Amino acid sequence: MGRNSLEERLVQLREEIPQEVKLVLVSKKQDIKTIKCAYDVGQRIFGENRVQELVDKYDALPKDIAWHLIGHLQRNKVKYIAPFVSMIHSVDSVRLLETINEQGKKNGRVIPCLFQVYVAQEETKYGFEEEELRTFYEEKGLINYEHVQICGIMAMATFTDDRERVKGEFRAAKNLFDNIKADYHADDDHFNTLSMGMSGDYLLAIEEGSTMVRVGSAIFSNT
Ligand SMILES: *Cc1c(COP(=O)(O)O)cnc(C)c1O
Fold this sequence. Notes:
By secondary structure, the chain is an alpha/beta fold. The chain contains nine helices and eight strands. The protein has an eight-stranded parallel β-sheet with strand order 7-6-5-4-3-2-1-8. The longest helix has 22 residues, at 163-184. The radius of gyration is 17 Å and the shape is globular. It starts with 5 loop residues before the first helix and ends with a helix. Residues 26, 28, 49, 70-71, 198-200, 214-218 line the site of pyridoxal-5'-phosphate.
């Protein structure tokens, strides 16, 4: 491998993003050997969007990896990842949160979760609107969810070249994060994660307040 090896791209990316911003390396569709390369240069947080792939990779790779589930999650599959998953970014319904809580209980764990929120204009995106989240907190609250830890918010911008639009959507997500934190997690140090930004827009996301970026293709292409 030459100047543009996976290792070099990873080191470069780490230098590019502020120390306090966490990097979830999105390893979907990558094989074990490739992921091990990233592991060997120090990467420890990996993101997958499919449960089966996540489980297979968990089994095959070192156990000090923190595995994050970043894609839409079906309730009947929560049980497969509940024993080990480090964070679920994609909690997009109260029913899913309930299932994660049940599975957390079964496994004697408290599972870190993010509420996926809807800020894009694309209609296929999953997630809560701010009002729906407020309704959840007002009507249910977290009192009955002892086996989940709500750590913040995850958002995806519209897939577009229109930077201003993407920026506006990130700004909306940051605003929503701040509002929910102020009103429902004011003294909660665990509510500290705003997961937004992918290969095409992570710098913009960081400018707009992201604390965790999910980057895949920018690192894994050309390998
Ligand atoms: C694939 C994926 C990413 C990473 O996308 P890249 O453009 O490859 O960086 C981030 N978040 C989610 C939810 C994804 O599915």
